[in-house]
Amino acid sequence: MASPLVECIPNFSEARRPEVVEAILESIQSVNGVKVLDRHSDVDHNRTVITFVGNPEAAAEAAFRGITRAAELIDLNRHSGEHPRIGATDVVPFVPISDISMDECVRLAQRLGQRVAGELGIPVYLYEEAATTPERRNLENIRRGQYEGLKEEIASNPARQPDFGPNRLGSAGATVIGARQPLIAFNVYLTTNNVDIAQKIARAIRHSSGGLRYVKAMGMLVEGQAQVSMNLTHYRQTPIARVVEMIRREATRYGVTIAHSELVGLVPQEALIDAAAWHLQLDGFEADQILERKLYGISTQPSELSFLERLAEGVPTPGGGSAAAHTAAVAAALVAMAARLTLGKKKYAAVEEPMQTLVTHAEQLRAKLTEAVSRDAAAFESYLTAIRLPKDDPAQQEARRQAIRQATLTAAQVPLESAEMALEIMKMALEVCTHGNSNAITDAASGVLLANAALLSAGMNVRINLDGFDDPSLSQPLLQKLSGLEQNAHQIIQTLTATLKERAGLLLPVVQ
């Protein structure tokens, strides 16, 4: 099963202080399993949009850290900008990319909202697919009156009470969190500084006032130029080209035209291909006719070296320690899979929360073990480098001895850490076997067995690296810890045997 991938596009109410934007960005990037794809800051809007992707748990954690940092550094009482806003972190949408449903993104938004409200005391509103009422599907309804208006009404107007958190606004304001389909943030600049024209065109093209379906628009003045600022919420139903041509037609009524346009954040490739095909009038055009797509297909064929191919090459690294970490990472993925198959099932509603915790922990361990694959190889490379140090005089000999000593310890510590994580995965997999979806019991059991194999394999690497080590005060604690891990693993295997027999009538082969 492929790892689920979700996109998150938080909007922060700051663009004029680069140091604040950098601090927020760093907090997001501090989470393993998250990749920042884009950042866009607009000084006139005084707003920064950061786009990142990751597995659901990592994406939610990165969003939480970004919200936390923004709350510390942004004071809405001192904020001004062209773009409407109610919070330091104004809006946080989750978008399903691969192997994740919209319903799962909704639950992700709900959990993040509860955490933001509970731990940070920030009022949270749910919108789009996560909305709790029809009126709150539309972001504009929630943001009506902006921060200043919401601050006056949140305590007195029942319709403006948040979904989570207090009925009052602090300096960080409120945050809107939700789940939605891919959205294109798109701005068109006109050849005029008359903002009234931009506002009239926005009124003509937006759906809420009789314009194009799936178009949200407003007119504003940006850097002395009239701008039609838009969100296109369903580019397949209302393509970019159709929107641009309607703006061009409306602009002609006022004696102006389009100066240029811009994207805020990222855009699906399909949307630009459709626009190009429309303008070029390419009948019968297919995306496979694009050269780069063909080249990408060639470059991603299995001919590229995978980890398994590198492992089989007959070179010292990667070796057994890296293989152990890789195997434990596979076990962690199985735990996440089996736990996810338990979520959302009425039969297992009582274990929904612990299973969600297991998913989060499993994904964190999988990310750490993936890093350990490279760390183990690097540790052995460092040992080989130390062995090759010169030894022509006593000073060089002592330096070489110390380098070998340290490299040996590191080469033992890395697989020991993998073994510790493997034991954690065994415990988690056993819990899923015991309480999770019975249809995934063998997947969870496979996680136990793979993690056990990883632990034993990592242990062999610990022992071989410490064999003959000249300082028992350093090596013995490591070996004792390893022995304890192996004993605990053996007990888990015994428990697994009984669990499989009881829940599924399966007999586990004899394993060590």
What can be said about this structure in brief?
The protein has helices at residues 18-29, 56-73, 102-120, 139-142, 146-153, 195-205, 240-253, 269-280, 291-299, 307-311, 320-340, 352-387, 394-435, 441-466, 472-504; strands at 5-8, 11-12, 34-42, 47-54, 89-98, 124-128, 175-179, 184-190, 215-222, 225-232, 258-264. It is an alpha+beta fold and 512 residues long.
Structure notes:
The protein has 512 residues and is of the alpha+beta class. Helices cover 53% and strands 14% of the residues. It has helices spanning 18-29, 56-73, 102-120, 139-142, 146-153, 195-205, 240-253, 269-280, 291-299, 307-311, 320-340, 352-387, 394-435, 441-466, 472-504; strands at residues 5-8, 11-12, 34-42, 47-54, 89-98, 124-128, 175-179, 184-190, 215-222, 225-232, 258-264. Strands 1, 2, 3, 4, 5, 6 and 7 form a seven-stranded mixed beta sheet that branches. β9 (215-222) and β10 form a beta hairpin. Residues 300-305 have low confidence and may be disordered.
Using brief descriptors, characterize the structure shown:
four-stranded antiparallel β-sheet; elongated; 11 strands; 53% helix; seven-stranded mixed β-sheet; 512 residues; alpha+beta
